[in-house]
């Protein structure tokens, strides 16, 4: 594998190495970026959190007012050009804002749906007249936006939508009839981005104003969590939508839906991290306060394990989220320099890293679920009470594994997109896969790891071998199953989980390596422990997923050869994880907050 300084293309991390100096780490956010985050945090603390109980009761007038106040502060326009009233912040800043807004509980979803899936389709696919008409009022918060894709019969299978649009006899309107469900901001939106089938088979986007005759809303859904956000069904009965409100090209609505989802997925990863940090903070404080057997429960090894593992997973996935975000930013800048418009550049960049976006949606949402689950356990009986914060956090977190494509869909999609990149030749995965097969036929090298005495000598060697394990397993599986692989969903998910663990493991090593170069090794002792524990655990998970994958189809000598190769590529011995977790936990306990 060739060591590279350049930014790697999408999914290229599997076949190339990255230098720590070439990645962005969250510790590098500049003062201006942190000022945006601080403004958002102040808004949440002063405006949102004090009225959260009212929001939970579906006070839609209050919800609208908060969006308007956010608009006045500029918090709705950071991703939008100045000509429409935005501030045109870069992608990294908007990712940090997404993470910060998650401290606003359900309001984060309201904000995210408005500024993301509600407004971005108009920015990226709207014509100049549409952008000039709608974006300024949406950026100011005067108008609110929602995205209408899901229907009762089409969730993951979005293109199976049955909502119809028929051109009127005079050619001036499309008559839309249909029903959409699970529409975030549905109860407060003035502007809907709606997908419908023209003539029954041309999947197309439309901008539909809520005030048009024939548009109606269902009752607010009674949800498990995120109760402070508005979610309802939207009905369209002979709604006359002007032809000039067609969004993008007729029959090309899938381009809007799928490209917007790439951005939404990685943003969900960032938002989940913010929620996880908040829940981890609650866990640490309660563990320090709660006395049992005449001492704080944070003194007990079982609790220290939980606190440390929360931090390990948060810190590691955070490294991956901002690594990928920076890659998207770099690609966007490149496309802008080539003459692409702002919308074309960001969409193209997100599409380039669509594999990473899908993986990080899964990783972020599952870290959040882990943190709130263990947080509730740390609270014990109080965790089950609505008087404490963890019951609410537990309920609110669960949706993240469902929307922006279920985690199962994203897992399978990540492998599908990887294979398509390989088939198109945009990613050469066959050459390194064949090299791994050749390596298997030769005796193991006795040359050592050769990482120049780095603190991560063993871990970097382990990640390099884990990539070989993936290439060996995936390559053999594809060769054996060919077209039948698409129907083997369990196998696709084994492979996806291997790929996800590799990306996160490499990312956390790179993050800490760069941090050491900035702060020195002594100041990064806890972060070094985090990276080493994560790599050790990832090694075990990857080995298990690979074995399960191989055993799903291989037999006889072929199975024996692959399992033997797998043992060769997963030999990482690791460190004393119990001791490392105790050291990590003690840092958190002493700080009385999540501090990484």
Any descriptors?
single chain, 596 residues, alpha/beta, Butyryl-Coa Dehydrogenase, subunit A, domain 1, Butyryl-CoA Dehydrogenase, subunit A, domain 2, Butyryl-CoA Dehydrogenase, subunit A, domain 3, eight-stranded mixed β-sheet, two-stranded parallel sheet, 12 strands, 10% strand
Task: Describe, in plain words, how this protein is organized in 3D.
With 596 residues, this protein is of the alpha/beta class. It folds into 4 domains: 26-143, Orthogonal Bundle (Butyryl-Coa Dehydrogenase, subunit A, domain 1); 146-252, Butyryl-CoA Dehydrogenase, subunit A, domain 2, CATH 2.40.110.10; 254-409, Up-down Bundle (Butyryl-CoA Dehydrogenase, subunit A, domain 3); 426-591, Butyryl-CoA Dehydrogenase, subunit A, domain 3, CATH 1.20.140.10. The chain is built from 19 helices and 12 strands. The chain has helices at residues 31-48, 52-55, 60-72, 91-101, 106-118, 120-125, 128-140, 253-289, 301-337, 342-352, 354-379, 389-397, 407-424, 430-440, 457-481, 489-519, 525-553, 556-569, 577-591; strands at residues 3-4, 17-18, 145-148, 164-167, 173-184, 191-198, 202-209, 215-217, 231-242, 246-247, 291-292, 295-296. Strands 3, 4, 5, 6, 7, 8, 9 and 10 form an 8-stranded mixed sheet that branches. It has a two-stranded parallel ribbon with strand order 1-2. Strands 11-12 form a two-stranded antiparallel ribbon. Helix 8 (253-289) packs parallel to helix 11 (354-379), helix 11 runs antiparallel to helix 12 (389-397) and helix 16 (489-519) packs antiparallel against helix 17 (525-553). It is globular, with a radius of gyration of 25 Å. It starts with a strand and ends in a 5-residue tail after the last helix.
């Amino acid at each position: 594998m060739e060591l590279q300084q350049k930014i790697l293309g999408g999914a290229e991390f599997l076949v190339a190495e990255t230098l720590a100096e070439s990645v962005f780490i969250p510790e590098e956010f500049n003062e201006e970026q942190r000022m945006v985050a601080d403004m958002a945090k102040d808004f949440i603390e002063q405006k949102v959190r004090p009225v959260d109980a009212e929001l939970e009761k579906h006070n839609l007038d209050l919800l609208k007012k908060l969006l308007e106040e956010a608009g006045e502060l500029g918090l709705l326009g950071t991703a939008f050009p100045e000509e429409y009233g935005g501030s045109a912040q870069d992608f990294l800043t908007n990712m940090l804002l997404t993470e910060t807004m998650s401290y606003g509980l359900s309001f984060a979803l309201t904000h995210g749906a408005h500024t993301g899936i509600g407004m971005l389709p108009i920015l990226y696919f709207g014509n100049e007249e549409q952008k000039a008409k709608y974006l300024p009022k949406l950026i100011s918060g005067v108008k609110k936006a929602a995205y209408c894709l899901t229907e009762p019969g089409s969730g993951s299978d979005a293109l199976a939508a049955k909502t119809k649009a028929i051109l009127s006899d005079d050619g001036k309107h499309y008559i839309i009839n249909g029903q959409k469900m699970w529409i975030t901001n549905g109860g407060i939106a003035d502007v809907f981005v709606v997908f419908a089938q023209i003539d029954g088979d041309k999947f197309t986007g439309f901008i539909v104003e809520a005030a048009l005759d024939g548009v109606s809303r269902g009752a607010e859904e009674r949800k498990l969590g995120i109760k402070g956000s508005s979610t309802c069904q939207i009905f369209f009965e002979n709604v006359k939508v002007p032809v000039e409100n067609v969004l993008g090209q007729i029959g090309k609505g899938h381009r809007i839906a799928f490209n917007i989802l790439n951005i939404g997925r990685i943003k969900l990863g960032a938002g989940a991290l913010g929620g996880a940090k908040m829940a981890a903070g609650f866990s640490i404080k309660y563990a320090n306060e709660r006395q049992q057997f005449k001492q704080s429960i944070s003194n007990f090894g079982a609790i220290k394990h939980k606190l440390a593992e929360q931090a390990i997973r948060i810190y590691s996935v955070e490294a991956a989220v901002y690594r990928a975000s920076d890659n998207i930013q770099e690609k966007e800048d490149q496309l802008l320099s080539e003459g692409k418009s702002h919308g074309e550049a960001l969409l193209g960049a997100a599409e380039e890293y669509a594999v990473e976006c899908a993986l990080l949606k899964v990783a972020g949402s599952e870290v959040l679920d882990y943190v709130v689950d263990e947080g509730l356990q740390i609270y014990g009986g109080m965790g089950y009470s609505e008087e404490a914060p963890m019951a609410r956090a537990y309920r609110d977190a669960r949706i993240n594994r469902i929307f922006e494509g279920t985690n199962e869909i994203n897992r399978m999609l990540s492998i599908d997109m990887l294979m398509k990149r390989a088939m198109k030749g945009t990613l050469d995965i066959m050459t390194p896969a064949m090299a791994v097969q050749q390596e298997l036929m030769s005796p193991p090298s006795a040359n050592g790891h050769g990482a120049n005495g780095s603190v991560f000598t063993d871990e970097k060697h382990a990640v390099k071998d884990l990539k070989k394990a993936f290439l060996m397993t995936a390559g053999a599986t594809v060769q054996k199953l060919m077209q039948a692989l698409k129907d083997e969903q369990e196998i696709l998910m084994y492979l996806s989980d291997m790929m996800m663990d590799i990306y996160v493991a490499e990312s956390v090593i790179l993050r800490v390596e760069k941090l050491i170069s900035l702060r020195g090794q002594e100041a990064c002792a806890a972060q070094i422990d985090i990276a080493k524990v994560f790599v050790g655990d990832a090694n075990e998970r990857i080995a298990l997923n690979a074995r399960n994958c191989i055993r799903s189809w291989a037999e006889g000598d072929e199975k024996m050869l692959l399992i033997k190769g797998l043992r060769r590529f997963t030999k990482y011995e690791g460190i004393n994880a119990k001791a490392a977790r105790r050291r990590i936990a003690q840092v958190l306990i002493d700080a009385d907050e999540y501090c990484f």
